[in-house]
Amino acid sequence: MRPQELLAPTASGLRCRLGDFYVDPVRPVERALITHAHSDHARPGHGTVLATQETLDMMRLRYGDNFAGRTQAIRYGETLQLDDVSVSFHPAGHVLGSAQIAMTCNGLRIVASGDYKDAPDPTCTPFEVVSCDVFITEATFGLPVFRHPDAAHEVRKLLDSVRLFPERAHLVGAYSLGKAQRVIALLRAAGHDAPIYLHGAMEPITRYYESRGIALGDLRPVKDMKKAELAGTVTLAPPSATSDLWTRRFPDPVTAFASGWMRIRARARQRGVELPLVISDHADWDGLTATIKATSAGEIWVTHGEEDALVHWCKTQGLAARPLALVGYGEEDEGASTSAEGAA
Amino acid sequence: MNRFAELLDRLSYEPGRNNKLRLITQYFREVPDPDRGYALAALTGALSFKHAKPGLIRELIAARVDPELFALSYDYVGDLSETVALMWPKTSASSSVETLPIPDPSPPRAALAEGGEEVAATPSAPLPPPLRRGEVSGGGPLPDAGQGHNKPPPPTLTEVVTTLATLGKTELPAQLTRWLDELDETGRWALLKLVTGAMRIGVSARLAKTAAAALGDKDPHDVELIWPGLSPPYLELFAWLEGRADKPANRDAAPFRPVMLAHAIETNDFAALDARDFIAEWKWDGIRVQAVSGRDDDGNVIARLYSRTGEDISKSFPDLLPSLHLSGAIDGELLVLREGRVQSFNVLQQRLNRKSVTPKLTKEFPIHLRAYDLLADGEADLRLLPFVERRTRLEAFVAKLDDLRVDLSPVVPFDGWAIITAARADPAAFGAGDDAEAVEGVMLKRRDAVYLPGRPKGQWWKWKRDPHIIDAVLMYAQRGHGKRSSYYSDYTFGVWTEGSDGDQLVPVGKAYFGFTDEELLQIDRFVRRNTTEKFGPVRHVVHEPGQGLVLEVAFEGLQRSTRHKSGVAMRFPRISRLRWDKPPREADRLETLERMLKTDVEASPH
Fold first, then answer.
1. Which A residues 148-207 touch B at CB under 8 Å?
2. Which of A274, A293, A306 lies at the smallest CB-CB distance from B13?
3. Is the whole model's pTM more than 0.80, yes or no?
4. In this predicted complex, what is the ipTM?
């Protein structure tokens, strides 16, 4: 069978007609399979949602109990039969509970990877390569200028700055689902055991991570603190908060931002970031290209991000490739918007 | 080089002027001669080696990476040096990444990072030999894998600068490649910024000199005054700043003096200003120049013409140089005069940027200097005198010069802001007479203003005439460069004209500024959501009678052009407003521009 018969892009998202479901639909649909809980992939209002337990829990935290008509949890590696299509979820290494979705029918297998990274992350299950015929890859950092350095090195830069400016507060912009918890875990691994302060918007998801057995040390709400007490401390906040009036509660804050976008100087400057930390939850160029090869897929579909370069690279490798031109993913991230969610 | 690269890197993120100063001064304090001197030269644009052309940098990267991937990356990053620094492949490492199999389920990078964190936790432990990403071992990697242990050490700044000064053109590519291999990402970026001469890190020459002055607690103005006689690596300057030697003397016979610039005045600025404190002049629509004359050690007259940035443009105006026969420095406007009448900027423009200055050209476009300030009179430096006294000296100087090619910019008499408002609206009626077409507004200068380099607050004001305005339709967009990189910030706009099948839009210009940061975000979003086609980096944006974005475009003048399909070219076009409220069909027509063209062209004899 042709891959397009199994899965095809529509205005609502990727549709599997034979299994009667959509993957990460951007509009309400009857049956949705969701890769991870970031709001551009996980939207409320679907009839039935199939996802990992963590993704379902975090959707509930964000959207309330009635975020979907019905929910069904699936474990990594577990296989379900949906009409003519067998479906399984595999770790994507992006954030807690993130999954790639493998769809198999008549011997043809397509893997929709959602967002993924092959770099280590102490807060989620490592990425797993799933062999397939068609691999659907993201391309958020699909340009060879994006080579993310070792995240531990970036966190050392932050701690060096904290030591250099003990009289100033360090304010780290980080997406509230995934990036924030990873940065905290990296800080702990680097030996920083002082309290870390949280913007209110960070709390529910961070506490949820802790409830899933991820140790993050002494975390405190920043709202209870006096200005002077915040000198020499680290606070995590949604990226949008680091540029608004809220920062006045901090003594002479150093604005940091943990994101793969920080690799590009102009991006950091456009946001007024003084301490760019190149820490990304997406695969970089080397990660994308190595993963594509490892899946041994002969056909690559490229979505959200810099599709052109990755499609071009695939062709130079003798792989069939095309951009999916799906809309609605990572949009808020493109163009250096200040919106908090998007999770680069 | 690494310490210098680190300085540039930190400066590039630092928004505050005072923090920038502190960073640079700290660098001068820590770094010995001659490295710091070459750094000062780099920051002030005083390095004399022939800059590497961007074309060469492109060739170097083209030999290493897929050209299509480079083109896409450059379009995205918007800065050549940074794109190349980021993309430059690590020697021999790329092949190991290419063939890297990812074992399932634990990828090798997970193993690497555990090692990395060990290193972080015990910083005093001896570092194992560096690894390239993709290799697995029991040890840990260095943070930046670019530094191979068997590599030569990265070059110093002095080594780079002195090598470049003596290097033959044919040796440059190989030398740059060696350095790029030796340096890490920040080092590569700084090296490329340096060799292409395009620093753009938000540090002006003035700021760098101020930071140097701070090293010795000196007045930055004193550094400016001796600056023309100094050359890299400024050993005598640093010796003076550190109290080890006397102040160096300025020895150039006809040096450039940094120019003083005006702020644009806003309507609400007037409330705080007293008209009696000011002298008004016309703002001439020509080219700001500094005409300097002096005598060298042998008594020969040295005359030079400088642009406002200090570029020596004497060669383009040999017909003016004989008129500069009195020692001194005039600040003024370069204009074309025909039979005593000032010609429009369009006419002057035809004399500019010519490869050869022929007798025909000098005859057809007779050049003229209209003087409005005097910075030096003979040996005397007048810059610390109040403007009103310099003006008196200038009047005497021009009278003594007694040359047809040099005259005084007249003062516009006024006794209140109402008169100046009227004069700006109708210069012809307030003394500009036939020259009114070449007046682009009025200048207001404080009587007591000393001549300060840069744009000091509240001393000189410019009040331009209102620009021409048209409503045009956004047709194509491209990503910008520099601080606007990755935003769609370069716009081609068009107006309606009668085509073979009804009305169609014809492009009439491009603009890439004038909008606020917020408006930029709005247009960028509009472009991304309304792209109908892509041609390389150019996005074709929807422009139908009922669908599209109308831009209000302001511009200073209009010229006939054979290069543009529309036959007209705008001077200084910018986006003045976004007309979300206006459907494209209501935008202006080409005929409107053609009517403006007629009135503009009538002012010149051709």
1. 149-153, 155-156, 189-191
2. A274
3. no
4. 0.90
